[in-house]
Amino acid sequence: MKTLKDVISLKFKTSESDGVIFHGEGQQGDYITLELKKAKLVLNLNLGSNQLGSIYGHTSVMTGSLLDDHHWHSIIIERHGRNINLTLDRHMQHFRTNGEFDYLDLDYEITFGGMPFSGKPSSNSRKNFKGCMESINYNGNNITDLAKRKKLEPSNVGNLSFSCVEPHTVPVFFNASSYLEVPGRPSQDLFSVSFLFRTWNPNGLLVFSNFADDLGNVEIDINEGKVSVHINVTQVKKNRIDISS
């Protein structure tokens, strides 16, 4: 497949921070890889390099963050020659690829959700995508519909299920005047708490607990968009520890 124009679009949601979403490569050294790295979206593209090394076509663009939040995110890649529009959740980024070539020259096989093991170091170190995708469209072809109807030839549809499993979590909504109080453990000398949260507010108290026997307290809050931990201990000289992230 030698193309001057490409349009690739899909939606995904995942709880994993790393994984290959889409991959294609060719005998001439061309490739396109869309993947999650540390919960950011990375597009790697090469329309060709020459053996002399004077033309270096590798181009890498990163966009977005915290994309492992198990919410739907939409991606559109529009390419016309070396001009690329990469749109993530309606935020468009325009760039031009390196090198001098305009055509993307791929083999007959492209993969969604991972990349085949080619023996190259790049294929060995990358994780396959784990999560849900929908509305996969590649140059006018509805890939999800073709895969479901088993109309992709040749194809290797692995262990796919055409449904999206939701994580078994129960969220709690706080309206800025509500709170949740749970009993403490007075005989324990260990304090441990973990939780996920999402808010648009830059300030707010997340967790507060008094220690037994008037030994002090611990407080976790958001202050100007940053999470802070404050530990107050009444019986030592340096009686306050502040950690901000």
TrEMBL record:
Annotated Laminin G domain residues: 1-164
Record-linked Gene3D superfamilies: 2.60.120.200
SUPFAM superfamilies in UniProt: Concanavalin A-like lectins/glucanases
Pfam families: Laminin_G_2 (PF02210)
Superkingdom of this protein's organism: Eukaryota
PANTHER family: CONTACTIN-ASSOCIATED PROTEIN-LIKE 2, PIKACHURIN-LIKE PROTEIN
Protein name: CNTP2 protein
Organism: Pelecanoides urinatrix (Common diving petrel)
